[in-house]
């Protein structure tokens, strides 16, 4: 009998090249970036709160969404096979990819087989995750992003900073500058009015839509009982890509499944309100295999694992696979608001990224991300599928490799605090040790606080005074009564 | 009713005034408070930083020390949240004592049915609802309900009150830049109110915000709201 093999971890753009605190440092210092993030997240946050408040059964919808996703996770293999059978019966071809490299190889081969040297793309996190654009470019195939924000990021040779608003870190003057520098057909007198910028992008993209023979999309949902794929978007670029080209290749994470078509009823209510703060998104496109004479006549679905089976194997961390990529948790997160998306390294930033990326890669490869949170819990409150992000963060912190000095300190503290006698002695020593210093500081500054301490305590005293032990501990006061 | 006080490690060492205040409030209301000397720490810092094994002895110690009491009062939202939310998962025998553990405002309002504790505090005060009290314990309006009954107090609203101050336990040390950026914004909102006193239900968050306010010589004093409820206007 063979031993069970732990599922493989994922690859692609889901690893932090730098530890989060290091990557966050320049972002926090960038006042323009801070201002852009502050304005954008607060605007979407307020919109979301308004439209969520309108829904009387919002909590019931969250419970339903959470329950459907938990059911999917319980019987994922069975549902995947059902999806494959339904999609195949409807005329699509289903491919399976274990990791990012395999998924990219499949898409490159399919594009070549279609005789194309360019593809138009619908905004998709899965293709960002597997670094498909880079793989296509290496194969001599040009990939054109058609979502406005993705286009801005692509032209700027940048990576997305937000799941829903990839160009959230730019203001309109910066976008105008990118268009003028990198978009060959941008008007010479382009202004930074949002309407003018959108029009320039529309004209630029129109030619691409009409000439492209292959489109690449992701999917927000994949319905097992009908084999249907669903894309939810706001600009109509997705609808163009999904209907005009002859070949459509959809790259879909295996966790995107829903058991039945009627389950969409729940998610098409939860998603737009949570993500864009809209009651209903402008475009919901659904395609089920091939319809003769209508839309793409060659449809491929690439089902990607890339670490998802490893996430599924952990019962505590598993709910991270329920994520519907609405980004409500990003918009409400005070850490994301200051650090921005790039600090998280992965294409999945913010609170969901802090639990998803380390699980996809293995925690050791993303060890700083579970600590990129104060555990304030705002993310859990807004999550439309009730992912208990703080609980999973703490769970992942158990698995993270701990710095030796921190581990030693924690062990000593635990040894002292597990014994009431040792703890009482430690309190007395700490109070006595700080006594003269505290009295001195109190005379000098009127408060028993320290202003400058050497490393590692400097991490605290760089921005805040540190309180010193009181002249008498509480238990000393109690004992004297 | 046998009420015990769990003072929390941070309060015992650096903020004993909070425990003294809780004792005074409860005695003034006619209750006897016990302080079991064998208590140490709830283990939250260890558990939340990823040291569950190292937290477990403290979890077990809490159960041993407090299991015989009808109610345990904790003047800290985050320590109460640790005990109520995490203990039952970490150590199932803790379930019962966890359910009898209350943050101060829960004990006063829900268990003892009191909203006016007979306090007087003629100052302008703004209140910061700390994250664990707000989102894990769902303290809601309880601390403010108590503060509103204080004679002479002028309560002013804090902007972006429900946003985290950036303390987050070891987060403040592991991510000092982001923590400082959040602290700077929180201190600015506090100063915007014009209040002379900032109150909250957690001395750790208050040490962080108060430390930031002191650094910028704002003249705003950060205190646990128990200390306001303990004041009677009489010179002590």
Automatic annotation (TrEMBL), chain A:
<dbReference type="InterPro" id="IPR037171">
    <property type="entry name" value="NagB/RpiA_transferase-like"/>
</dbReference>
<feature type="domain" description="LUD">
    <location>
        <begin position="80"/>
        <end position="304"/>
    </location>
</feature>
<keyword id="KW-0813">Transport</keyword>
<keyword id="KW-0479">Metal-binding</keyword>
<dbReference type="InterPro" id="IPR004452">
    <property type="entry name" value="LutB/LldF"/>
</dbReference>
<keyword id="KW-0411">Iron-sulfur</keyword>
<keyword id="KW-0408">Iron</keyword>
<dbReference type="InterPro" id="IPR024569">
    <property type="entry name" value="LutB_C"/>
</dbReference>
<feature type="domain" description="4Fe-4S ferredoxin-type">
    <location>
        <begin position="321"/>
        <end position="387"/>
    </location>
</feature>
<feature type="domain" description="Lactate utilization protein B C-terminal">
    <location>
        <begin position="398"/>
        <end position="480"/>
    </location>
</feature>
<dbReference type="InterPro" id="IPR024185">
    <property type="entry name" value="FTHF_cligase-like_sf"/>
</dbReference>
<dbReference type="Pfam" id="PF13183">
    <property type="entry name" value="Fer4_8"/>
</dbReference>
<dbReference type="InterPro" id="IPR009051">
    <property type="entry name" value="Helical_ferredxn"/>
</dbReference>
<dbReference type="Pfam" id="PF02589">
    <property type="entry name" value="LUD_dom"/>
</dbReference>
<protein>
    <submittedName>
        <fullName>L-lactate dehydrogenase complex protein LldF</fullName>
    </submittedName>
</protein>
<dbReference type="InterPro" id="IPR003741">
    <property type="entry name" value="LUD_dom"/>
</dbReference>
<keyword id="KW-0249">Electron transport</keyword>
<dbReference type="InterPro" id="IPR017900">
    <property type="entry name" value="4Fe4S_Fe_S_CS"/>
</dbReference>
<keyword id="KW-0004">4Fe-4S</keyword>
<dbReference type="Pfam" id="PF11870">
    <property type="entry name" value="LutB_C"/>
</dbReference>
<feature type="region of interest" description="Disordered">
    <location>
        <begin position="1"/>
        <end position="21"/>
    </location>
</feature>
<dbReference type="InterPro" id="IPR017896">
    <property type="entry name" value="4Fe4S_Fe-S-bd"/>
</dbReference>
Automatic annotation (TrEMBL), chain B:
<feature type="domain" description="Cysteine-rich">
    <location>
        <begin position="125"/>
        <end position="209"/>
    </location>
</feature>
<protein>
    <submittedName>
        <fullName>L-lactate dehydrogenase complex protein LldE</fullName>
    </submittedName>
</protein>
<dbReference type="InterPro" id="IPR004017">
    <property type="entry name" value="Cys_rich_dom"/>
</dbReference>
<feature type="domain" description="Cysteine-rich">
    <location>
        <begin position="3"/>
        <end position="84"/>
    </location>
</feature>
<dbReference type="Pfam" id="PF02754">
    <property type="entry name" value="CCG"/>
</dbReference>
């Amino acid at each position: 009998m063979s031993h069970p093999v732990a599922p493989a971890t994922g690859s692609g753009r889901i690893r932090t090249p730098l530890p989060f605190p290091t990557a966050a440092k320049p972002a926090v210092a960038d006042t323009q970036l801070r201002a852009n993030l502050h304005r954008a997240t607060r605007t979407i946050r307020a919109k979301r709160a308004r439209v969520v408040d309108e829904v009387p059964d919002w909590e019931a919808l969250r419970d339903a969404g959470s329950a459907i996703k938990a059911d999917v996770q319980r019987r994922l293999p069975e549902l995947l096979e059902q999806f494959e059978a339904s999609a195949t019966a409807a005329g699509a071809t289903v491919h399976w990819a274990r990791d990012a490299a395999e998924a990219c190889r499949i898409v490159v081969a399919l594009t070549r087989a279609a005789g194309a040297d360019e593809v138009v793309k619908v905004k998709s996190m899965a293709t960002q995750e597997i670094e498909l654009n880079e793989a296509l470019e290496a194969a001599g195939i040009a990939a054109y992003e058609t979502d406005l924000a993705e286009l801005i990021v692509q032209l700027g040779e940048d990576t997305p900073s937000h799941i829903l608003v990839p160009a959230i870190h730019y203001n309109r003057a910066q976008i105008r500058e990118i268009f003028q520098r990198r978009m060959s057909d941008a008007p010479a007198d382009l202004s930074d009015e949002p309407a003018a910028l959108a029009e320039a992008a529309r004209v630029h993209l129109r030619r691409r839509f009409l000439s492209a023979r292959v489109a690449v999309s992701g999917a927000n949902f994949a319905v097992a009982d009908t084999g249907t794929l669903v894309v939810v978007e706001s600009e109509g670029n997705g609808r163009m890509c999904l209907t005009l080209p002859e070949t459509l290749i959809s790259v879909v994470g295996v966790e995107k499944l829903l058991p039945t078509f009627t389950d969409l009823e729940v998610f098409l209510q939860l998603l737009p309100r949570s993500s864009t703060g809209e009651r209903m998104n402008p475009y919901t496109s659904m395609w089920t295999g091939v319809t003769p004479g209508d839309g793409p006549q060659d449809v491929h679905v690439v089902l990607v694992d890339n670490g998802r089976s490893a996430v599924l194997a952990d019962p505590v961390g598993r709910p991270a696979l329920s994520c519907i990529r609405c980004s409500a948790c990003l918009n409400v997160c005070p850490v994301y608001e200051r650090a921005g998306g790039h600090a998280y390294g992965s294409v999945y930033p913010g609170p969901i990224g802090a639990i998803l990326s380390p699980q996809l890669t293995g925690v050791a490869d993303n060890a700083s991300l579970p600590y990129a949170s104060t555990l304030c819990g705002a993310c859990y409150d807004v999550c439309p599928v009730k992912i208990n992000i703080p609980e999973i963060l703490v769970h992942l912190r158990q698995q993270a490799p701990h710095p030796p000095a921190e581990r030693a300190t924690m062990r000593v503290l635990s040894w002292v605090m597990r014994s009431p006698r040792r703890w009482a002695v430690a309190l007395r020593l700490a109070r006595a040790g700080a006594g003269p210093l505290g009295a001195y500081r109190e005379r000098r500054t009127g408060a028993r606080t320290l202003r400058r301490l050497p490393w590692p305590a400097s991490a605290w005293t760089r921005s805040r005074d540190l309180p010193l032990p009181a002249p008498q501990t509480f238990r000393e006061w109690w004992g004297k009564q | 009713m046998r009420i015990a006080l769990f003072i929390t490690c941070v309060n015992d060492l650096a903020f004993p005034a909070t425990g003294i205040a809780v004792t005074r409030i409860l005695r003034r209301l006619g209750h006897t408070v016990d302080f079991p000397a064998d208590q140490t720490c709830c283990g939250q810092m260890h558990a939340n930083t990823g040291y569950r094994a190292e937290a477990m002895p403290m979890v077990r110690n809490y159960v041993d020390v407090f299991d015989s009491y009808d109610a345990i009062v904790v003047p800290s939202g985050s320590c109460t949240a640790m005990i109520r939310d995490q203990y039952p998962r970490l150590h199932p025998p803790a379930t019962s004592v966890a359910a009898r553990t209350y943050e101060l405002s829960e004990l006063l309002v829900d268990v003892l049915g009191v909203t006016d504790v007979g306090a007087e505090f003629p100052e302008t005060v703004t209140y910061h609802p700390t994250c664990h009290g707000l989102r894990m314990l769902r303290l809601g309006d309880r601390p403010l309900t108590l503060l509103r009954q204080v004679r002479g107090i002028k309560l002013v609203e804090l902007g972006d009150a429900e946003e985290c101050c950036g303390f987050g336990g070891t987060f403040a040390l592991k991510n000092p830049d982001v923590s400082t950026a959040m602290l700077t914004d929180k201190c600015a909102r506090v100063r915007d109110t014009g209040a002379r006193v900032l109150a909250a239900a957690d001395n750790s968050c208050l040490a962080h915000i108060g430390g930031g306010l002191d650094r910028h010589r704002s003249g705003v004093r950060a205190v646990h709201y128990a200390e306001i409820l303990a004041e009677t206007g009489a010179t002590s």
